[in-house]
Each structure stands twice: as C-alpha cells, then as structure tokens.
Design brief:
It is a single chain. The protein has 2 domains: 142 residues, Enolase-like, domain 1, CATH 3.30.390; 36 residues, no CATH class. It contains 4 helices and 6 strands. It is globular.
C-alpha cells in the first residue's frame, strides 16, 4: 500500500465522469454521452455562511451525435440535472457553438472560448474536454465492429492517430505499419 493511501481519513469530495458511446439509428453516426457528477461527502458551509448537507453538487449530462470519419458534431444537447443554481441553465446555449465542429486539433481551445469565463461553465467545459478524445475512441470502436475497408487515407490516419501518443509516434512500429498499409 502506498504511503499516501495510508494517510487518508474521511472522504470530502468526489468527481466522477463517464463517457459512453452508443450506436445510433443513423448508421453513419454514434451518440456520445458524457456525465459529470460532483458529490460533497461532508456537511459544509456555502459562501454565504449557510450550512449545507452532504450530497450531489453537480450532475451534468452532454450528448452529441458524431458523424463521419471526420468526427463532426452533428447535434449536441445538455442537461444540468443538479447545479448550485438554476441560473446555470443559461450556459447550455453555448453548446450550440459546437454543432458542425470536427473533433480534431484545436477543439480544446474552442471549448475554453465557448464555455470558459463568466459566461460559461467550467464543469461543462471539463466534461466536453474529456468527451472529445473519448468520442474519437468510441467512433473508431464503432467502425472496428467490422473489418476495416482500407479506404482510409494517409491524411486521415495522420490527423487522428499519428503522433497522438507514444504508441502512435510516427517513427514507432505501429505507426510505420499503418503508414505502410494505407500508403499502398
């Protein structure tokens, strides 16, 4: 057991995020659903000195329909099930900025611009930033339910796979094998 693990006492806060990908009634699309939940485990005081009971503090859901190999967000919606105030509902309108956006380089910058600061919701931004790479994995897992057809261009592979991590580094064995395969 680690040294820090032995020093824990009571749980104060937990944040759980889950991102799931589902098949869609449109055979070229998937539905990606992200859920963020914050739970406060101890009695606490709000900023105005009011005592609050433990419980769920945030429960945010974002759903998007992602289509095509270019991972375009065709539709997006959100729900703020539990939030500190219903005033937070005003931030949902900012999700529409992502309709028609490809999940690719620059998506995190766009998330920060649309959902950051005084007009946005940092929790929704955090959830969307987790959903973007998960949507890519989910869509590729959806495609991998059938043998790959070989109609993937080297440009597409480079955009979504090459140099995204150590395993997919351009000079690595896996990337070289894929580059050779799609370059034929």
């Amino acid at each position: 057991m680690s040294q820090l693990s032995c020093r824990k006492t009571e749980k104060i806060h937990s944040r759980n995020m889950e991102v799931c990908t589902y098949a869609c009634d449109d055979p070229q699309s998937v539905i990606v659903e992200g859920v963020l939940k914050d739970h406060l485990w101890q009695p606490h005081y709000d900023l105005f000195g009011e005592k609050c009971r433990p419980g769920e503090f945030h429960h945010i859901v974002v759903r998007m329909r992602v289509e095509s190999l270019f991972l375009v967000i065709a539709e997006i919606e959100g729900e703020l099930i539990t939030v500190p105030s219903r005033e937070c509902d005003e931030t949902l309108k900012h999700l529409q900025a992502f309709q028609g956006t490809a999940i690719a380089g620059g998506i995190n910058r766009k998330i920060k611009e649309a959902l950051g600061g005084k007009d946005g919701c940092q929790h929704m931004a955090t959830l969307l930033q987790a959903m973007a790479p998960a949507a890519m994995h989910g869509y590729w897992s959806f495609l991998a339910q059938r043998p790959m057809s070989g109609d993937f261009s080297p440009e597409l592979m480079k955009q979504f796979m090459i140099n995204t991590c150590w395993y997919w580094r351009e000079e690595g064995e896996t990337a070289q094998r894929l580059i050779h395969m799609v370059g034929k």
